[in-house]
Amino acid sequence: MQYIEIALAAQKQIALVAHDNMKANLLDWARTHKAELASHTLYATGTTGGLLEAELDLPVARFQSGPLGGDQQIGAAIVSRQIDCLIFFWDPLEPQPHDPDVKALLRMAVVWNIPMACNRATADFIISSPLISAAYRRSVPDYSAHQARTIPN
């Protein structure tokens, strides 16, 4: 597969998502990293975004709640290169009614090669990386051959 490079500014567009049982963990993590998060543009699904805004006193652009389409909205923002990084504290022990949407969101992060953390340790690694606050050239798969394919009638 061929790759193309896109330039990312030093200020990143970071999406923050957490399932209900993981919201307290995400809030605690965000409090710990408030200074680092303050220099980036933050996005979140509905309820999580409201909690983050109140807890951090930082602006958070909010999508719909995950079960109401917020996960899909973030996935679409990844595809359109509006999200540079995904921090998603998902609950591996509870079934989610919108599990297909969750899997689609995780898939889009992988397909479009954005950094993604699904637990606190990985989120710590991402937020503490020097690349989070530096200009960065991210390799994105070149899907032009896939997009140009023809489907027989």
UniProtKB/TrEMBL annotation:
Q: Where is the active site?
A: D71 (proton donor/acceptor)
Record flagged with keyword Lipid metabolism: no
From which domain of life does this come? Answer: Bacteria
Q: Which reaction does it catalyse?
A: dihydroxyacetone phosphate = methylglyoxal + phosphate
Q: Which UniProt keywords apply?
A: Lyase
- Enzyme Commission number: 4.2.3.3
Residues annotated to bind substrate:
H19, K23, T45, G46, T47, T48, S65, G66, H98
* Gene3D superfamilies listed in its UniProt record: Methylglyoxal synthase-like domain (3.40.50.1380)
Recorded hits in InterPro entries, A to Z, give: Methylgl_synth (IPR004363), Methylglyoxal_synth_AS (IPR018148), MGS-like_dom (IPR011607), MGS-like_dom_sf (IPR036914)
The chain positions of domain MGS-like read 4-153
Which GO terms of the molecular function aspect are on file? Answer: methylglyoxal synthase activity
Lyase among keywords:
yes
Describe its function. Catalyzes the formation of methylglyoxal from dihydroxyacetone phosphate.
Name the family. Belongs to the methylglyoxal synthase family.
User: What name is this protein filed under?
Assistant: Methylglyoxal synthase
Q: What organism, scientifically named, is this protein from?
A: Chitinimonas viridis
